[in-house]
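Figure 2 data, in text form.
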Amino acid sequence: MTFNEVAVVAEAFGRSLVLEPFLATAVLGANAVLLGGSEEQKQAILPGVAEGQTFLALAALEPGLRYAVEAPQTQVSGADGSFTLTGEKNNVLGGDVADHFVVTATQNGELGLYLVAADAEGLSRVAQRQADGLGSANLKLDGVAAQRLDAADANAVLSEVLDLGNAAIMAEAVGALEASLTMTAEYLKTREQFGAPIGANQALQHRAADLYAELEYARSMALYSRLAVTSEVPGAEKDRHRDVIAAKIIVDRAARNISQESIQMHGGIGMTMEYPIGHYAKRLTVMTRTFDDADSLTAELAELGGLIEPQAADLR
């Protein structure tokens, strides 16, 4: 499956509010193994993923580190192919059902990616549900046996995997935003007050039109990020991360505004658990904060552009 096909599936998932570990397995976990693993590791893991028999999860976030995935506190011991991991991971997307984890850890200050079986001795997993209902887990690793993925540059692999993840998140967000706005427009047409649809009020028409324009802007940025992560132009990889985070800033802000405005224009019914518009808002809120948010990305973009000193805005 190419990434363009992945994005089409992700957008359909967002539109239908499908809560499955697709992002965790097919995008994050599978690409970590594909980009960082040896041929032997790929053959051991990826066929099961393709058949739908194996679930993966990327364990990169840690307690107290917010979005600083590039400097994990999980430590590695051992050498010559025999490694053990000790540390904690939280909010592991898809971790509740994962058969294998791709874990970020450091040894002598060097970042590495390690493959850990979910049933490995010393690994404890606490499954949980996020605010949107999607499954995740917190992990504790105490001398857990692990295989190191053979990537020469784990930082580069992790960066590309997260960029692919964010591009997929943006595609899913566009699907959810489209569904939210369609539902809101239909409500404005059918909900009546004082003998007329509330959509007859020009003020609500203008607000809906503004949201539609914002949706199309977000869609364009999601497509732009898709181009960035699939570009085969020589040297394009150096601009990939910048382009992806610039696009996600726009999509994150659109997700917040459109989801909140959709609830507002529904009135009281939009706040009920039984009505779906609030569930789209929860999904959009969680997905746009999976590995970063608009504030942390804005600070990172400013660093990349030389507008502020590195870590001057400690939002990650």
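Caption note: Strands lie at 56-59, 75-79, 82-93, 100-107, 110-117, 123-129, 135-148, 192-193, 196-197.
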